[in-house]
Amino acid sequence: xxxxxxxxxxxxxxxxxxxxxxxxxxxxxxxxxxxxxxxxxxxxxxxxxxxxxxxxxxxxxxxxxxxxxxxxxxxxxxxxxxxxxxxxxxxxxxxxxxxxxxxxxxxxxxxxxxxxxxxxxxxxxxxxxxxxxxxxxxxxxxxxxxxxxxxxxxxxxxxxxxxxxxxxxxxxxxxxxxxxxxxxxxxxxxxxxxxxxxxxxxxxxxxxxxxxxxxxxxxxxxxxxxxxxxxxxxxxxxxxxxxxxxxxxxxxxxxxxxxxxxxxxxxxxxxxxxxxxxxxxxxxxxxxxxxxxxxxxxxxxxxxxxxxxxxxxxxxxxxxxxxxxxxxxxxxxxxxxxxxxxxxxxxxxxxxxxxxxxxxxxxxxxxxxxxxxxxxxxxxxxxxxxxxxxxxxxxxxxxxxxxxxxxxxxxxxxxxxxxxxxxxxxxxxxxxxxxxxxxxxxxxxxxxxxxxxxxxxxxxxxxxxxxxxxxxxxxxxxxxxxxxxxxxxxxxxxxxxxxxxxxxxxxxxxxxxxxxxxxxxxxxxxxxxxxxxxxxxxxxxxxxxxxxxxxxxxxxxxxxxxxxxxxxxxxxxxxxxxxxxxxxxxxxxxxxxxxxxxxxxxxxxxxxxxxxxxxxxxxxxxxxxxxxxxxxxxxxxxxxxxxxxxxxxxxxxxxxxxxxxxxxxx
Length: 666
Description:
By secondary structure, this protein is an alpha/beta fold. It folds into 3 domains: 10-346, TIM Barrel (Alpha-Beta Barrel), CATH 3.20.20.80; 354-566, Class I glutamine amidotransferase (GATase) domain (Rossmann fold, 3-Layer(aba) Sandwich); 572-665, Immunoglobulin-like (Sandwich). The chain contains 15 helices and 31 strands. It has a 9-stranded mixed beta sheet, with helices on both faces. An 8-stranded parallel beta sheet has the order 5-4-3-2-1-8-7-6. Strands 9-22-23-31-27-28 form a 6-stranded antiparallel beta sheet. Strand 29 (643-646) and strand 30 form a beta hairpin. Helix 10 runs parallel beside helix 11 (325-345). The protein is globular, with a radius of gyration of 27 Å. Mean pLDDT is 95; it is low at 1-5 and 361-365.
């Protein structure tokens, strides 16, 4: 059943982590009904379990790891695969890697060890609290790796050719297990040094991914391969190990609604297809009896295709082998929408006007902790402004972006500085904020393009921003608090200060303070909060991190107004609430503008949820296009829309937006 065009748009990831204490595994499984439910739900790919975190196997095998409660004579995985294939549904196979309770219990010498000798993961008497199972973590430098290879080889032999293999729980796991220590010493690394332990864990992961990929390729050349649990920031060196990029993000679990839109903008940069993975659960994995509202499911799957991603919805099969029909009514309703829209999303690629360097940390003598949440802050802020952007790394090609942003804490070496200088010389625009482009003690420039002279950190934890005339559009005329520590700078020769830092009377401390919170503003300082020279600007605060933490509207307005000075026109304008999301996709000669208006609300102490879809009417959309399109319409309805083309922009009004609209320009 394998084929080269195998990554489908409507997938289900069917968990089956089933403890050995359950004795009726698969006793009510009906292969035909199983496949029919999936077919009725418009599902065209299901990831099935060969081996779960408990370490048990669910196929016809003589290995002792076969689940002890699995119905005698039942080849559960084999019957699932066969039934799905009869319906034209793909069936990639799941194998757990570093979580294997059976192996850990039978071979405790394979368990990874902390520096103090304790086992990584759960101890012998640790109770598995709800939502926090007590998994023991295996060390891949031990004979466990060969044990896993034997299981994989059996799966590849029994199900040849496999549609795909999905390996899970595959992070870099340092260990002070004897096997790991011996391997480190052989590699010339010091087990006493944490950096060396992390380094070897990373090498070990690359080695076993390469080894297992070769096994799969030899058996099933067209199989999809994915290693779940790897950091998305590693994609530059690890994309070669997988055929697709999967972004696991159950928003109502601990991921939140910003996780997918943040990480998908990194996946944009790679040739592999990518998908988003949510779940039908109210909360997180194995939330039996938990069913999310349809509005949330529609939003999550619509957001995926709006970014060019395939969709995957997680579920967990009941131990007896039965699917919940109500859950698949929910899945089917969402996937019927996706199927209707596939002609306009298949092979569509995002259009990005702005390149945002992924934030990273660098040694700073004066700061104990560098900004956190920068990437999330950039995602929130730029999405609210409807800018079309993607995250890029320091080796990315810079051509094609009209604006580059170095947010808050990007290390700039000589090579990157030279590339940025060439980019600006060719007409590109650049915005840097916070510590980006500065030395470790923030007193020297590493990027001499920046129109500033740095003078170290501000002595004040909290200061205020007074907006100048060039950047005060939409900002109330008062001094606005900045809750994060900034950097004192002065404008370089020929540069213009756009906003001024207003400093407080004194730094609040136990020795002197005033009232309940920050010290009030005293007077304007000589230090600018934002500086501009030509097509290069600098903001002297970690403003994206600050926006992620505080959501203070003036922070967004400052960035918005500075960007407006740097680029002539944004690619897309939408006159709508800031909570509306908008993306621009290119599909051959078609341009598709996705508009999404779903409002996640804080419905519990730590849970955001979408329950209602509130319509918007008469939404003006303006897209920069050199030539007028022949027609503009809504998909999939094919409802024609009146439009104007003037001054290099297409102006159109969407009469009604009920959750998700697709404006197609051909």
